[in-house]
Amino acid sequence: MTPAALQRLADRLELEALVIRYANAIDRRDFASLDSVFTADAYIDYRAMGGIDGPYPVVKQWLPQALGHFPGYMHLISNCEFQIDGDRAHGRIACFNPMVVPRPEGGTDTMFLGLWYLDAYLRTADGWRITRRVEEKSYDFNVPAWLKAVVNPA
């Protein structure tokens, strides 16, 4: 294998590890570790699935409050496509996101969200980081009526 081919392979593995690190941080509610995922000036847009958009520090502060409504969830990452160009890259990452949702009358249901992350990455002195993440909705299933206005914006 040529050095360039080895570098492309190493970059891809590092980018895959980065998007998995994001999913694990969110699912563990370890929001502080997102600092090793995003650049300080990253832009995040979660509006397609009912969230907010803005600079990373604002979105990071919003996450615990927004996700605190859900007793459990998982972000299962797959189908990672990366276009790497030197120290910059773009990616399209599939995410299957089951979420446990409390019922107003008691008990819980599980809803399922399917989405893609459309990412931009930058190689920094500390490794690859996300500079831009935009959600693109694929589908939702079993979203409770009280939550539909948020997850299915008009």
Notes on the protein architecture:
InterPro entries: NTF2-like_dom_sf, SnoaL-like. Pfam families: SnoaL_4. It comes from Fontimonas thermophila. Residues 7-133 form the SnoaL-like domain. The structure is a single chain. With 154 residues, this protein is an alpha+beta fold. The chain has a single domain (3-151), classed as Nuclear Transport Factor 2, Chain: A (Roll), CATH 3.10.450.50. It has three helices and seven strands; from the N terminus they run αββαβββββα. It has helices spanning 3-27, 56-67, 145-151; strands at residues 38-45, 53-55, 72-73, 76-85, 88-102, 108-124, 127-141. Strands 1, 2, 3, 4, 5, 6 and 7 form a seven-stranded mixed beta sheet that branches. The protein is elongated and about 60 Å long. It starts with a helix and ends with a helix.
Quick rundown:
By secondary structure, the chain is an alpha+beta fold. The protein has 3 helices and 7 strands.
What is the highest CATH level, the class?
Answer: Alpha Beta
Largest sheet: 7 strands, mixed
Q: What pattern of helices and strands is seen along the backbone?
A: HEEHEEEEEH
Q: How helical, in percent, are the residues?
A: 25-40%
How would you describe the shape?
Answer: elongated
**Which CATH architecture is right?**
Roll
Q: How big a fraction of the residues is strand?
A: over 45%
Any idea what the radius of gyration is?
A: 16 Å
- Tally of contiguous helical segments: 3
- For the termini, the CA-CA separation is 51 Å
Low-confidence stretches: none
Number of strands: 7
Question: How many structural domains?
Answer: 1
CATH topology: Nuclear Transport Factor 2, Chain: A
Structural class: alpha+beta
The averaged pLDDT comes out at 95
